[in-house]
Amino acid sequence: MSLRRVYVALDPSDLHQLADEGRVEVDGRPARAVTAAVRRELAEVDEEEQEYDALLECAAAASERAGSSRRVVAAADLPEAAVHDVADGYAEVTLDGPLPRERLVSFHVDETTEHQDADLLWHDVTELEQVISLAEGR
After folding, report:
1. How many Å apart are CA 113 and CA 40, to the nearest integer?
2. Which residues, in sequence order, are CB contacts of 124 under 8 Å at separation 6+?
3. What is the pLDDT of residue 112?
4. E strands within the chain?
5. Calpha distance 81→130 (Å, rounded)
6. Distance separating alpha carbons of residues 12 and 137, to the nearest angstrom
7. Taking the model in full, what pTM does it have?
8. 41-95 pLDDT per residue, tens
9. Could you tell me which InterPro entries the record lists for this protein (predicted)?
10. Are the CB atoms for 70 and 136 separated by under 8 Å?
11. What is the pLDDT of residues 16-32, one digit of tens each?
């Protein structure tokens, strides 16, 4: 099965759903990934930098969802069939079905509530409770 790295903005209720149910509903929710448009625009850089650009695109889009909380972006590896590029989009994709916890590879959380892209901190998926605390301002 071929997998594709995606980035999804999550809020505290999504994080609680992950903790309680082992998954979060993302059917049709906008997300970000490396698309053909990203590859064209960033043809001179490697895949890792293209993925970082998709992460930052998701972080920028996450500002509205986060409100006054810290932005949380989950990185996940999903089956290709569950990820659909948005026509005429840059890094935008939509996802089918729930996002299972076992598909998560990391969380990226604002260092502060000021939503500065350069200040996203990496968290392992085993740190879900800490990520929830950060998202809720505890």
Report:
1. 33
2. 106, 107
3. 79
4. 3-10, 23-25, 30-33, 72-79, 83-85, 92-95, 98-100, 104-110, 120-123
5. 31
6. 10
7. 0.91
8. 899 989 899 999 999 899 888 877 777 678 899 999 999 999 999 999 999 999 9
9. DUF6912
10. no
11. 999 999 999 987 667 99
Q: Position 99: which residue type?
A: L
**Contact (CB, 8 A) for 62 and 74:** no
Tell me the two tokens of residue 63.
């500002």
Burial of 50 (0-12, 13-18, 19+ CB in 10 A): buried
Residue 127 structure tokens: 């740190």
Phi, psi dihedrals of residue 107, rounded to the nearest 5°:
-120, 150
Number of neighbouring beta carbons within 10 Å of residue 126? 8
Contacts for 95 with CB less than 8 Å, ≥ 6 apart: 6, 8, 26, 27, 28, 29, 31, 78, 82, 83, 84
